[in-house]
Amino acid sequence: MKRTPITLKLYQQKPFRIMAWATLALLVLAVGIFELMGWPFLAKPAEQWLSKTLERDIQLTKPDESDPRFKLRLIGGVRLSLNHFEVDAPAWSQSPFMVRAENVSVGLRYVDLIKWANTPGSALRIKSLTATLLNGNFERLKDGRASWQFTKNEPDTGPAPAPEFGLLAIQKGQITYRDEPLDLDLDATLSLQEGEIGADALTVMALGSYQGKKLDIQLKSTGVLPWVAKQGKPIPVELNVSLGRARLDFKGNAADALGMQQLSGQFAVSGSSLAAAGQALGVTLPNTPAFRTEGNLVRDASNWQVNIDNATIGSSRLNGRFVYEGGKTQPLLTGELKGASLVLADLGPTVGAPAEKQVAAATNQGRVLPDKPFDLPSLRAMDADVKIDIDNLDLGSEILKPLRPLRAHLAVTEGVLIISDIQAKTAKGELAGSVQLDGREDIAIWNVDLNWANVQLEQWLNIPRAGNELPYVTGTMNGAAKLSGQGRSTAEILGSLAGNVRTQVRNGTMSHLIVEAAGLDAAEALGVWFRGDDVLQMTCAFADLDANNGVLQPRVFVIDTQDSAMWVNGSISMKTEALNLRVVVTPKDFSPVSLRTPLLITGTMGSPDVSLEKGPIAGKVAGAVLLSLLNPFAALIPFVDTGAPDSTENANKTGCYDLAARSKAQREKN
């Protein structure tokens, strides 16, 4: 039969099609056979190719091994089984090798390999790596070069990321890790043993140092725990970490052993300062005295949820609930701080106050204001939105009573700390207002706006007296303060203080002895001592202080009683801590023995000096010497003070109105 040109052409091509299909079938069969065999003939070519590509000597078999086990699977991903595997250390390293392992199985996904090859600087994700024995020496230099960084040894702009493992199961291993950017030096041993119930038990013990502090890590889990997996199924784990004097104990569930990116359970943290514990947890915390905190936590990557059942910080007893979101551009801490007691001195170092020993040293040097620099970088490290509800705030003074309770709202936004909505009660009175510390620059800016009302002085001032004697001072105190300053420490801020403070005491009384002592009325004072102290009604007690460049000066500072009127002028320098005060007392009664000369308070806050003004007393003493030549009893005449009772006109202007006018006149006179 005669074929057409088309059928003839198809007939002529059929043998070629058959040969093509046959070749493809043979090729598939060969790949299948080689896949089952494990591609043993590729061992040496693979070594050479990897060594050339990675610019590092790679061994997939031992040179003297008679029957090397090399099995490679390429379908569905790269799976490699070896008796021996070794990766040489980079040329700049002193280590004999980077990785050396026995009975190794490695699993890689093609998608991870493609992503790593096409994304410079990304971490290589290894699906699984198991071995009966693994020794590793991993290093990272300050310039960014890392031993796990291949094909290039030039410094990077940032530290090279470590590989990520979905599963890293090592029966026995020894790993050293040196990380100069982190200042971390670690030697770890790990073992994976089969448990009694068929589960695997992982034990990791690591010793070394972190940022100059001794580091000790012990980890135990009841299963094969991934080391640096981003996602994994949590299993029971127990972790104990000590860093310097800080310690963390955790028992719960975790998804990875090294990064601890997912964990939940009970914890206990203790140490010499919260800041030391924050370093171990990767969280910025303030400097405090010794502490211990217990509670439960949940961590998901960079986010923490912490419920604190009991926190002991120095003498403080606190609790609270907090959420720390570390994955944001600016980490955020939110929550609520509660507690039965908070001692202000326990948080003193956070705002620049020195420790107890430093206080003594400062006092010996004549300086009492704390000059420890603020930890402003910590203030800028994260934002915060925390509600405060404290039952008892101890002001750290033996004289001043605590605030009971204290409620406020603490917020930190880009380095600006604001404590607002302050509501506190003490001695039947109330304190309200706000405080702000702007730490965005090297020099902090401080502002305070506080007011107080109905504070009962006899209850607020804890000044005990012998027997059942009445308090030295009583009354209802009201006032307000608006102040600002700037500096790197509390001392610098107070040294630049500006603003105004006003306070007034109503319906108050004052100890008779204090008034007479201030006026140096010897006869009155002796009489008080013999017959017992009594109280004088205060018709006025008012202070109006101006602050300018760290110097406090009274505009009006007056106290008026039925016995005497006393006013104060002069200055107090918060910058140099110098005192220059003058106290003048004008009696309203007759006293046979009275110097009635102004008191001078000079010196410094750390070493005050109280003396008499020499001018007025010198004249009285000279007169006494002359009169004593005539009659010894005449020497008492200059010391007899007939007093200066209010005139009828002034008597109608009682209280602070009259005293303010007289104080102003006294200042103009002097």
Quick description:
With 670 residues, the protein is α+β, with helices and mostly antiparallel strands.
Question: How do the strands and helices of this protein lay out in sequence?
Answer:
Blueprint: H1 5-37, H2 43-54, E1 58-59, E2 70-73, E3 78-87, E4 99-108, H3 110-118, E5 125-126, E6 128-140, E7 164-165, E8 168-179, E9 184-194, E10 200-210, E11 213-221, E12 235-243, E13 246-254, E14 262-271, H4 274-281, E15 291-300, E16 303-313, E17 316-325, E18 332-343, H5 356-364, H6 376-381, E19 383-390, E20 393-394, E21 406-413, E22 416-426, E23 429-438, E24 444-456, H7 457-460, E25 473-487, H8 490-495, E26 498-511, H9 512-518, H10 522-531, E27 535-548, E28 551-561, E29 564-573, E30 579-587, E31 599-603, E32 608-612, H11 614-628, H12 648-651, H13 656-669
Parallel strand pairs: 5-7, 6-8, 18-19, 18-20
Antiparallel strand pairs: 1-3, 2-3, 3-4, 4-6, 8-9, 9-10, 10-11, 11-12, 12-13, 13-14, 14-15, 15-16, 16-17, 17-18, 19-21, 21-22, 22-23, 23-24, 24-25, 25-26, 26-27, 27-28, 28-29, 29-30, 30-31, 31-32
Organism: Limnobacter profundi
Domain AsmA: 226-554
InterPro entries: AsmA (IPR007844), AsmA-related (IPR052894)
